[in-house]
Each structure stands twice: as structure tokens, then as C-alpha cells.
Amino acid sequence: MNKMAPVPLPEPWQGETYHGRPTLKPAEFDWKVAAYIAVQGAAGAAQVLAGVSRIEDPGDRNGLASRARAFALAGSVIAPAILIGHLKTPKRWYNMLRIVRPQSPMSWGSWVITAFGAASFAAWGAERMGWGRIADFAQIPASLAGAGAATYTATLLSTTSNPLWAAAPGPLAAQFAASSMAGGAAAVALLQRKAGKIESAQRLERLSAAALGAEAAASMMLSEAQRRAGVSAPLKKGPPAVLHKAGAQALGIAAPLLFRALGRPALASAAILLGGALLRQAVLRAGDESAKRPLDSLGFAREVRR
Fold this sequence. Notes:
Blueprint: H1 31-56, H2 64-87, H3 90-96, H4 105-128, H5 132-158, H6 163-166, H7 169-194, H8 198-229, H9 239-261, H10 265-291, H11 294-305
Helix pairs in contact: 1-2, 1-5, 1-7, 1-10, 2-4, 2-7, 4-5, 5-7, 7-8, 7-10, 8-9, 9-10
């Protein structure tokens, strides 16, 4: 029996789509989502700093742990309120807590936020009541949940079908984590300066500067990974690119270093916090633009299948 002749392979995909329409629907997250991610990240990092401070200074002579706990608690309340405002219907938030889906980053995120808020309240409340041992015990889950709150949003974005967000999960998580630590350290440093604790504030400011260096390194890794995946265009030109370069990079990284060199640490800390919010906004806006580009979504999907 003669073997059947091989069927010729179809021509490679050239980027065309049905009537030129995008293959993905943009998420269209508004500024509230960017603010939520930034506030939640800084609050989570502050709770980690509170845990480290309690280990290094059990007596909390400088009040660093106490102020970090208060800031973390405030963030754990404000951030979900911002998110609920974006969801329009508060019932959506409650419904997420009715089930647990281990394979759903959104389900994990809902529980991380809830655990972070509950543990932050327990640590802060026990301290206010003078129950030092209970506060230190509650600090353990609070710090763990804080670390999750500072980073889980990057995981949530990178597990979507959006090509820009999914191109490099590791560098994106590192970028968000470093930015969160820079923001948390900067916020607590401002509180320490206001309380007259200059020495501890300076230590936090050095930590925030180091975190900015880690953020810059992660950003370069992320940019290179997105370039290799062919999805970097939204961050190279257009409004998201301007927001990313002028806000996240110039204001969020370069300006704080300049302010520190000029002896204006408070301005440096404020710039870090604002730059962190603009970074999230730029990433979200660029993701929406990437979803509208058929060459990005279909080309990236083809690379993933290889």
C-alpha cells in the first residue's frame, strides 16, 4: 500500500485577525486599581518592617514597629475600600470569600487581603491594649500576609492572557515587590521623622534607596523579557510610555535619589510613594494597549505554544 503524501503545512500566521479586531478585551482598570495596588503594597511592606523591627529592637525604643503597624492597618482598610469602589458593588467582594479556589490567583488574593487586614488589626489592637506577647504572636501572620499583599497583584496580572503582563512573571513580581518595599520604607520613614526619630528614619531611607535600586534592576529585566516576547511597544511609545518614563522612572526612581543628594529626604520619600502609584498605573494602561494589539496577543500566544 502506498503511503499517503504529506499534507503541506499552512502558511505561517502573519498577524491578521478577523476584520482587524483585537483578540483580547482590555481590562480597563481605572486609577482606583492602581491606587489600590500601591497602597496595599506599601502597607504590606510596612508590616514586614514591623516584624523585622520587633526582632531587632524587642523594646521598640524608637516606636518604629508601632508606627509601621499603624500604617499597615490603615493601608489594609483603605486599599480594600478603594478596590470595592472600583468594583461598584460591595457584594462582589463578599462573594469572593464564599469559596476557595487554589488555582485562582484572584481567590488567593481575596483571602490574602482579608487575612492581612485581620492580622494587622490583631497586632495593632493587642499592642494598644498592652498585650505585648499577643501582639508579637499576631505579628507573625501579619508579616507573612503583608509579604503576600505586597506581591500577589503581580501574580494576578501575570496569570491573565494579557501579553504584556504575562511575558515575564518573575521580573514583574520582583518589580512590584521592590516598589512595595521602597514605598513601605518611605512611608514609615516619614512617620519616624515626624516623631523626631531621625536615626531610624535615616535607616529606612537607606533601605528605600536600596529597594529602588532593586526595582530599577527588575524593571530592566522585565523590559528585556517583554522586548524578546515582542510585546514591549506600549511601553516604548504612546501615553502609557510617557506615564512610565516620566512617572515611574523619572519621578519614582531618579527624583528620590536627586532629592536625597540635595538633602531633602522627606521629598524623596513622597516622590517614591507617588512614583509607585504611577508605576502601577503605567503597567495597567500599557496592558490595555497591549490587549488591543493583535500582533502582540496572537504572536505571544504562538511563542508560548512552542
